[in-house]
Amino acid sequence: MTNFYFNHDPANLPDFSNDCHPVQMFHTHQNDITKHSLVSKQLLQTVRDLGLNVDADAIDLITIATAVTAADTFELRDNAENAWARKMHLHVPVTDEDMWNTVEPELVLCSTF
Description:
The chain has 113 residues and is of the alpha/beta class. It is built from four helices and four strands. It is globular and about 45 Å long. The two termini are 16 Å apart.
């Protein structure tokens, strides 16, 4: 199983290992490709450029969706035992952990097929 760790600040990411894949999100800090992957480089800025007041829960949803998409992209199906199903654990920062913990079972269920 691969553990994916997501954060906008690379200082909060662990080192690469066989079962750990650190991923910087949104390029808010300097990126070092030897230490972590980078996803959604312009997404957060694009949302901000809309000029709308975006709720923190909406940003969290964007963050979760970005993490799921990135993990699905990084964890190749060709490497899976049955060439399809993969085991991953995503560590995703959110602003309201209590709120997201209440829907965690639905998020897990949605990712299991």
